[in-house]
Amino acid sequence: MTALEAAGERSGEKLREEMLALGRAAREAAATLARASAEQRTDALNRAAAAIRTARGAILEANRRDLQSAHDKQLSPAMTDRLMLDDQRIEAMANGLAEVASLPDPVGTVLAAWTRPNGLKIERVRVPLGVIGIIYESRPNVTADAGGLCIRSGNAAILRGGSESFHSSRAIVAAIETGLERAKLPRAAVQLVPTTDRAAVGHMLAMNDLIDVVVPRGGRSLIERVQTESRLPVIAHLEGVCHVYLDHAADPAKARKIVLNAKMRRTGVCGAAETLLVDRAVAAKLLPPILADLRGAGCEIRGDEAVRALDRDAKAATEQDWHTEYLDAILAVKVVDGLDAAIRHVNHYGSHHTDAIVTEEKAAAEKFLNEIDSAIVLVNASTQFADGGEFGMGAEIGISTGRLPPRGPVGAEQLTSFKYVVRGDGQVRP
After folding, report:
1. What pLDDT, on the 0 to 100 scale, is given for residue 398?
2. What one-character-per-residue DSSP string does 318-344 give?
3. What is the spatial distance between Cα 63 and Cα 116, in angstroms, rounded to a whole number?
4. What confidence score (pLDDT) does residue 1 get?
5. Is 1 helix (H, G, I), strand (E, B) or coil?
6. All domains in the chain, ordered by first residue
7. Which 8-state DSSP code applies to residue 384?
8. What mean pLDDT, rounded, does the chain reach?
């Protein structure tokens, strides 16, 4: 029996007790973490970054086991890329923790203050959410990002990573626990669910007395399961059906550069473009060199009739293609009748994640920004900037695609709530 198989074997009652034990330990750790000073949380993050660098060999060995399992299961190249760690990606994880450590500590920040006519002094102050359950798929770097952001924001974390990255996540959490311990904070502030059993997710979603909020990050089926089953508040990170629209006033050089980067920089990230829309007025001019660039980079093109008339090698797009997050080197391409048609398409087919317009016309840019109902909207920039690190947040747990806050990249500040602190001098209400 492999270690992964052993991790997946739990009786129902044993698993329930294990999950409750995780929750109780997290609840206790959250109280300690919230009382800790900003300097102590910063110390824990810096020590965790150092521990990840020290554990580089162990993390790579754990990741090798996950990659072998991915190979045996014949996961796609895009999924394998999401899973793979190397020296550069491990260093990026450590740097991410160090960057989060350098951010202002949100806990205790006074958001607003005022004095009432009766002399009561009122402050609105940031506080941690408490215990955050985070359920995610494949990418082991999310383990470091989520753990680090929860420490920075004074929250305890219970992490349930994908079975594909089980060994990698376990090695990363061990390094974070080392950082916590060396900073004299409880190791239970960041815990990994010790099983790949899917039933663990069900237990998490029912632990409303021990977990305060759950953050699912993954495909549609995961998000729908969490939203359906959860007894907890949910901060949903839905799939990234991201668009780039090339307006009639697009600069051809910018369009060519942005589209290639938005699709092919990394195809397996949620900010990768999945659909390209082009104004019919400039399609014949703009599309041929752009499609040649994409195909040269190994991208498959699926187009509507207008696109296939310009590119005979493009495959015919189906209705499903406009809904699809490929996370692979595939791009759906459609010619539309101007800006209004592009906006209608994005708002209908998109996942409200990240969408971009390429244009030199200010009025078109402003209309797109105002009317596209997405968490992130860009002008003349790649959708791959949809990332908390690129927004100056150090890292992110995900991109929240709901309309209620937090929306967009969820960093440390977005993992806090607030309370009202009222100071009086003997006032009573008449």
Report:
1. 87
2. -GGGGG----SSEEEEEEESSHHHHHH
3. 58
4. 45
5. coil
6. 3-237+406-422 (3.40.605.10), 242-390 (3.40.309.10)
7. G
8. 94
